[in-house]
Design brief:
The chain folds into 4 domains: about 100 residues, Rossmann fold, CATH 3.40.50; about 60 residues, no CATH class; about 180 residues, P-loop containing nucleotide triphosphate hydrolases (Rossmann fold, 3-Layer(aba) Sandwich); about 60 residues, Alpha-Beta Plaits (2-Layer Sandwich). About 45% of the residues lie in helices and about 20% in strands. It has 15 helices and 13 strands. The strands form 3 sheets. Strands 6-7-5-8-9-10 form a 6-stranded mixed sheet, sandwiched between helices. It has a 4-stranded parallel sheet with strand order 2-1-3-4, with helices on both faces. A 3-stranded antiparallel sheet has the order 11-13-12, covered by helices on one side. A hairpin with a 2-residue loop joins strand 12 and strand 13. Helix 1 runs parallel beside helix 4, helix 4 runs antiparallel to helix 5 and helix 5 packs antiparallel against helix 7. The chain is elongated.
Amino acid sequence: MSEDSPVVVAKRVDGGDDTDLSEISDLARAAGYDVVGQLAQSREEDAAYHFGEGKVEELAALVRETAARAVIVDNRLGPYQTYNIGGKLPEGVEVIDRFTLILEIFGQRANTRKAQLQVELAELRYELPRAEAKASLAKRDERPGFMGLGEYDESREQDIKAQISRIKQELDAIADKEETRREQRRESGFDLVALAGYTNAGKSTLMRRLADDLDVGENEDLHPDLDPTAESEDRLFTTLGTTTRRADTGTRDILLTDTVGFISDLPHWLVESFESTLDSVYRADLVLLVVDASESIAEMREKLITSHDTLYERNEAPIVTVLNKVDRVDDDELAEKRAALDALAPNPVAVSGLTGENVDALTARIEAELPDWREERLLLPLSDDAMSLVSWLYDHGHVEREEYTGEEVLLEFSARPAIVEKARSKAAAISAPAAQTEPAEPGASADG
């Protein structure tokens, strides 16, 4: 379906008045659709139509009135429900459920091989349990392929499983390379900090505020935000892949990674499909969980709970909650939200990525929460190799004292434990030749 195609969005809830259609409308627009109508219903799910049959008739009338070419349902539909709803709509009108729409958006934003593989894996995992029912419907219907159900194929389930296995193997190989790269960066003195949070929480804007170097060797993960002239976009899923930039917080050099934004009501199979991208969060030294402070307390609480469910299952690094967009709230409102969310977000940092307000406090908190560095003191004979080690330590750690006395140089520095060990090894190699040139003891022969 082409961009700007007119669509009607619809939603059913089990009870109450939580029939807000703003998120599904935003998702539809993010996919390039033009939302021309909305419909919501509060009632228990109907096994045949999801909505009540009368509401489906009302939906069909709205489609005819607006000349919509598709109906996007903010729920997960079973294949029979999709088929039954489609049977009530004008011919040619497609029925798209929430997760099909999300996968469509992901597919549009997948600009790297890893992202494309993850989208394909998610689509296959979504299709697998539906394959038998879809084949049955396609076989029964007089129009083969009706509503994209496809021709009947007994081997389809086996084909899906084989494709899933192949994709997982390729993603595992990519993950191994990325883990090697993470360790190389740590060995080079970088701390790894990940930005996590919901879409439109302002992660990309905050990243641009913190980052000071665009060149970090992420050629395979290039992203529009790597363009220094690009503007942060107020739309969902701007970052599907990961984007990494260098940032300086004072004494520590960090690599800051922005990842795909969370969205509500994601099923486990979909989160699992993007495990490779989420590894940037799970394997970071520190996670900044970014929350939109301008949203209601109820929305913030729900998103914090969902984010914690995703992060704490596998993440071992400390998590700092960042209340972003404080330029949109006054002090009293911010204090109220802090108090209400204290159990979920103790001691958060409140900032504005847009204006830069309180970003200094965030960088200080980042340094405080990162794994402790070790302090070390080295005394080296003055030489070209010693000067190279001094330069290396400035690049890989924080030199607190550099003092020259006669033929020696004294260094006091702090760095990651791995860097300290490397520095010791380098220092031993520099000092060893000096020890070997000391005068031999009286009576000693050249050959020992």
